[in-house]
Amino acid sequence: MRSHLLALGATLVASVLATPSSTYVRHEKRTSLPSGWRTDGKLPGHEILPMRVALSQSNLDKAEEYLMEVSHPDSPKFGQHWSTEEVAKAFAPKQESVNAVTEWLKSSGIAPERISRSQSLGWLQFDATVAEAEDLLKTKYYLHRHTDTGKPHVACNDYHIPKHLSRHVDFITPTVHFDAKIPQVDVPRRPIEVRYLEGRPPKTTLSTAAVGVPVQTKAAVQVITNPKNSYHPKKGADVDIHRLSDELRMCNVHITPNCLRALYRFPPNSRANRKNSYGIVEYTPQAYLQGDLDLFFANFSTNQVQRTPTTDLIDGAVVQNIVESFAYNGESDLDLEYAMALVNPQPVTLYQVGDLVEGASFNTFLDAIDGSYCTAGGGDDPTQDPPYPDPLPGGYTGPKNCGGFAATKVISTSYGYNEADLTAAYERRQCNEYMKLGLQGTTIIYSSGDNGVAGNLRQCISTNSTGNGTTYNDGTSGKFNPGFPSTCPYVTSVGATQVVPGASVTAPEEACETVIFSGGGFSNVFPLPSYQATAVKSFFANFPPPYTAAQFNNTQKTRGFPDISANGANYVVAVDGVFTLVYGTSASAPVVGSIITLINQVRLDRGKSSVGFINPTLYANPGILNDITLGGNQGCGTPGFTAVKGWDPVTGLGTPNFPKMLSKFLSLP
Ligand SMILES: *[C@@H]1O[C@H](CO)[C@@H](O)[C@H](O)[C@H]1NC(C)=O
Ligand SMILES: *[C@@H]1O[C@H](CO)[C@@H](O)[C@H](O)[C@H]1NC(C)=O
Ligand SMILES: *[C@@H]1O[C@H](CO)[C@@H](O)[C@H](O)[C@H]1NC(C)=O
Ligand SMILES: *[C@@H]1O[C@H](CO)[C@@H](O)[C@H](O)[C@H]1NC(C)=O
């Protein structure tokens, strides 16, 4: 009886679906190919596609409420973080969604025995011929080829699903999405730049080589092996270490750990807490050199010589030493030298992610620290996230690392995409994972970008709209190009400041305008979070920016970034055996991460929890930060936004004032 009723239901659904495409709605579309790709014709109908349906998770409408409950300073439940199991249970897709999608597939001729589910039902998976998939999604599949590497990629331009399923499906793959592995964007990107110490560095660096460079290019293997690769940051002259003797008087020309302690008023640390932890994320082929750490420690943190980070190798990761140059070692050396020195003797965890062949995406990392993402909740996208085991020659052949690594209490990452590189559905899904980590008491820190209101490679969004969707230009005009994950409201985005040239370390800082400009602006995807509403409203009321919707989403209803900032200019870093100066929000992020780690240590010493998601406390207590009111973040042929009194999309709420932050966080439950 029961099974008959079910069969009847399926038949009814089928007959509805068989009626014209009016019951179908477009679910996602992409109107142009990412630069660097060309279409290589239709895909033959008999080819097999590994289809995956990302089911909508439940209770996401309550996510902000849940997170505020454990992170808002006025909440009596502040610090009562959730367990991994509680998180997985709260957000697992509803059975109703699983059923609805399964019925649709069945009625469209995908027999039930062909469909499998991921452990927690987050994904439905099946193999289908191109012809079947085209019929199912009312679309056409094309083979695309990368113009430089010849790498093939299967995609359609849009796809449709029955209207009643829209709320049950996040997205389906493979469809419109394109490759977005971190090294493809970020090794080419100049995360940090080096300039000569002699004389004043130029106000801006023109990276003409970057103009016209495809947004998404170059597999990691190309970056590693291709000597013609033109992306490497420029390496400056060495710093004469003897000139650093009067360290604290020189902070306007070189930043050292003691300069940062003076700027943000935090002492050298003296102890570790076993419950405390601090993670720095690096994406292969970026790698640190122990010799560089030792050189740095010998000069700036003598008892740490030969100290290594606790290294978690994720998905066949290697700390590669095949290629040694600023482009490959600069980011890792910078992050680890400063993070390790500032929290010493607290150990620092290095999450080294991805092998030399596939590279990795942020989702690869999330998989490794949060099993619910790869098995239970389900967030990976096989067309955007590298597959492990790695199918390419020489790649990692072991199993995908899933949930095997603990999340540290603070996780700092100095890499990023343009928000426009990825689809909104993909970004929302990843952003929700940061929310889940916040619920579990982890502080997620991302650098805000180094190109002001422009995006990676200093590109802006072309306003030459021909209906072809997002394309980037040379950065001299166009729409502002905000960065992701910084626009995710569940991360803490860190911008950059500098000591005013010629000023002392005790004088107020200004927005960084040396070599780099602090990334900042407003999301085109994420709505304004409640914790930020007052700050953003008062910014628009008191200092309305002189731009229109042609430059940015000026509805005042979208997430603004960054949240906080820290010095990002003139860092003395040991790279490839010499000291050089380094610039970027890449430097600012691990400094803020270190300060939060020191605050966690005192809370943990007193039997309290880690601070977790800090934004609600920062925005409710702007006085615990040093407001920055000078400078701007130029880009896209404009002066960008201006640092003003209160929050601004250049330096956020300002730089850390450690004693005030510590006292506030210690006053919370
Ligand atoms: C700093 O590093 C240089 C270069 O290795 C070394 O010669 C010098 O002794 C170091 N200074 C200190 C104070 O350790
Ligand atoms: C639009 O495209 C034309 C032709 O490619 C170019 O000359 C012009 O500068 C572009 N304008 C903008 C605002 O990007
Ligand atoms: C838009 O797409 C059409 C068709 O693919 C192409 O012919 C045209 O050159 C594209 N225009 C731009 C500005 O990319
Ligand atoms: C601006 O953001 C709002 C709120 O997220 C959104 O509804 C609107 O569509 C966006 N406008 C544009 C032009 O992107």
Set down the secondary structure blueprint.
Elements: H1 2-18, E1 24-29, E2 37-42, E3 48-55, H2 63-71, H3 84-91, H4 95-107, E4 116-117, E5 123-129, H5 130-137, E6 142-146, E7 152-155, E8 158-162, E9 169-173, H6 182-186, H7 220-225, H8 257-264, E10 278-283, H9 290-300, E11 310-314, H10 326-343, E12 349-353, H11 362-369, H12 371-376, E13 410-413, E14 417-418, H13 424-439, E15 443-447, E16 483-484, E17 492-498, E18 510-511, E19 521-527, H14 533-542, E20 558-561, E21 564-567, E22 571-575, E23 578-582, H15 585-605, H16 615-620, E24 625-626, E25 655-656, H17 658-667
Parallel strand pairs: 10-12, 10-13, 11-12, 13-15, 15-17, 17-21
Antiparallel strand pairs: 1-8, 2-6, 3-5, 3-9, 4-5, 6-7, 14-16, 17-18, 19-20, 22-23, 24-25
Helix pairs in contact: 1-4, 2-13, 9-10, 10-15, 15-17
The chain binds 2-acetamido-2-deoxy-beta-D-glucopyranose (4 copies).
The site of one 2-acetamido-2-deoxy-beta-D-glucopyranose has 4 residues, from helix 9.
